[in-house]
Structure of diguanylate cyclase:
Amino acid sequence: MSRYIKNNYVQFWLGCIIVIGILHFLFTGLEDKVTSFSPLLFPMLTIFLLVFHLFIACFMVMKYWCDRQRLYLLAFAFAYVGSAMLMVGTLSSYPAWLDLHQFNVVNYNDAMIFFTFRHLLMAVMFIASALLYFIRNRPLTRTFHICVIVGAAIYTAVIVILAWLYSSFSPLLSLDLVDNETRQYMLLWKEAISVALLLVWIVSLATLMIITRVRNMFWVGGNFICVCYIVTLAMLFLGGHAEDITWYRARLFETVATLLIIFVLLYDVFNLYRNSHLKYQQSYQNSIRDPLTRLYNRSYFYDALNQSLRTVSETHPVSVIVSDLDRFKRINDNYGHLQGDKVLQFVSQLLMDSVRPQDIAARIGGEEFVLMLTHTSSDAARQVAERIRVKLSSFDRANSDGQLPEPVTISMGVFTAISPETSAEACVECADKAMYEAKETGRNRVVVFQ
C-alpha cells in the first residue's frame, strides 16, 4: 500500500481530487451567498487570465533562454502567448468593461469562438511540448530549433487569424455557437465542438502523463493544467446557456486554477534556485577545503588570517599555532599511505573539535597543520595547544578505533600577533620557528615564540 501511494500517478490524481474538491466547495459557498453575478465579472476574470498567461509565457521563455536544450518550453510559451491574444478578442466581445453606456451589449458568440480556438491552440501546443520533451536528450540542430519555433509561430498565428475571421469582426466566415438573443448554446457547441475539445484535452493529458510520468513539480503543473481545462469544459458542457451559474463557475475555476499553476511554477523556480545554491555552496567548500581532511586549505587560511590582522590589537590579539606530527614518515613506511591518511583524518578531526567555531583549522602541508585563534592571548593559545598535544598523545590503536596504528605525538609552535603591521606570512613563519624548536628539543611539546 505504501509503494502504491508513493506512485507519481496516484499522488497526482489524489492531489487533483483534493484541489478540485476544495475549489468546488468554495464556489458552492460563493454561489449560495451571491444569487447572481455582475456581467462585468467575466471580462474582469478574463483580464486576470490574460495577465496570468502572459506571466507564464514569459516564465517559459526565460527558462528556455537559460537552457536551450529545453525546446519544449517554447511550445508552452506560444500556447500562452496565443491564448493571451485570443483573450484580447474575448474582451472585445464585452465592451461594457470599457464603455459604461454599452453595459448590456455583449457578443456571447464571439466570446465562445475565441474560447474555442484558444483551447484548440493550447491543447495542440501541449501535445507538441510533450513530444519535444520526449526527444530532449537527442542532439537537436540549430535548424531544427528554428523550424520548431517558426512552426509554432505559424500555427499560433493561423489559429488567431481563424478566430478573428470566424468572429463578427470579419464577414468572410461565420460560426454560430451561442444565440446572442436567448444566450442559449447552439447544437454545434453542445454536440460537436465541446465534445471535440474535451477529447483533444484528454489526448493532451494522456500524452503528457505517459511521456513526462509526472516526474517533477513542473510537469505536475503541466498535467494539472490539462485536468483544469477538462473540468472547465465539462462545466460549460453541463450548462444551459451563457451567463448562467456554470458560465461563471467555469471562468472562476479556470482563473483560480491558473493562479495555482503560477504558484507551482514559482515553487519549481524555488527548487531550481535551492539546488543551484546547494551546488554552489558545495563547490565553494570544495575550493577552500583540503579534500582529504576537510580542514581549510592554505589559501583560505592566509586570506582569513590577513583579514583578522587588519583589526588586531593588544586587547584583541590573534594567535597562530603551527603543528607537525612527529615521525609521521615512519607510519607511512611501516603501515602504508592508506593508514597514514587515516591518521591525518583523525588528527584533523581532533583539531576541529578543539577550537571554537570562529577559529580556523587548516592543513598547509603533508602532516603540517595550522590554527588561527581570534581574540586569544599567547598564554591562552599555549593552553589550547597543550590540551591538543596531551589529548592526542593519550590515544592508541585500541581507543582510536584502529585509526591510529600506534601512539602519535605532535610538536606545536605558538605565535601571537598584537600589531596590524604584522603580516600573515610573518605570523606563520614565527610559529613555524617555534614548532621546529619543539622538534629540536625533544618533540611532543609546545613552544611559544619569543
Notes: Strands lie at 318-325, 360-363, 368-374, 410-417, 446-448.
